[in-house]
Write a structure and sequence with these properties.
This protein is α+β, with helices and mostly antiparallel strands. The protein has helices at 2-6, 9-17, 23-32, 36-46, 122-129, 135-142; strands at residues 49-51, 73-80, 84-96, 99-108, 113-120, 158-163, 166-178, 181-190, 193-200, 209-213, 219-229.
Length: 235
């Protein structure tokens, strides 16, 4: 359970910074109070100093984060401090009536294995698999909690807030390429220390890369996309 507990330290730390507000509360308020006056009022009421991102540039990118489709297959190289290296796969088939069949397989070089097939809507698939040994790779990897892409992300995107307890920063700092697909490199910092990295692409339902670090910079969890199969056109 070591890595499963420690990999969520960053989330717990962020929640502690927020006081009585949830992370969703802070994110929504940060986005909605974009003007200087609104930002001042928000700071006065909550004690949280928020810097919101600028208006995104014009783009024709259509993001489909978490919207996985029949015919897709994702295979990741994984590594955790607790369990060592291995692979994780996510394969999707159509079950009809807006339902999907998802096969997941988790194999560690140590010999430990887990496999499960789930049928349901996207939300039902996530919910059921979060109660399995694959939960850490789904909740903190595929469905990464630090992803902020409601309107898409772009190079230079950044938002942050600070309280007397500490600071939080989320920023898109670079681009990279995995399995021939370009993605945006995003980092999350708490008190100036990087606790999370991901690489997000509008062409993929899941991040191409995810990593978590503890407060000393030690890596706790890493997922890197090794293979991606695209649905057949017209299928």
């Amino acid at each position: 359970m070591g890595v499963r507990r420690r990999s969520f330290v960053a989330i717990a730390g962020l929640t502690a910074l927020s006081g009585c507000l949830s992370v969703d509360d802070i994110t929504n308020r940060a986005r909605s109070e974009a003007s200087d006056r609104a930002g001042d009022e928000f700071r006065d009421r909550t004690g949280i100093d928020v810097e919101t991102p600028e208006e995104p540039p014009e783009t024709d990118e259509e993001w489909r984060l978490y919207e996985f489709e029949p015919g897709e297959r994702y295979e990741y190289r994984i590594e955790t401090e607790e369990d060592g290296p291995g692979t994780f796969s996510w394969t999707v088939e159509d079950a009809g009536e807006d339902r999907l069949v998802v096969d997941t397989e988790l194999v560690f070089e140590s010999g430990d294995e887990f496999a499960r097939t789930v049928t349901g809507t996207q939300d039902e698939v996530f919910s059921e698999l979060l109660a399995t040994p694959a939960a850490i790779f789904i909740g903190s990897g595929l469905h990464s909690p630090y992803v902020v892409a409601d309107e898409g992300v772009y190079l230079g995107y950044e938002w942050r807030f600070a309280t007397d307890e500490g600071s939080f920063r989320y920023a898109v700092e670079d681009t990279d390429t995995y399995v021939g697909t370009d993605c945006y490199v995003a980092v999350t910092e708490i008190d100036g220390t990087t606790v999370h990295e991901s690489c997000l692409s509008p062409d993929l339902a899941f991040p191409a890369f995810v990593a978590y670090y503890d407060e000393s910079g030690e890596q706790q969890l890493e997922m890197e996309l090794l293979e991606y199969d695209v649905p057949n056109e017209g299928s």
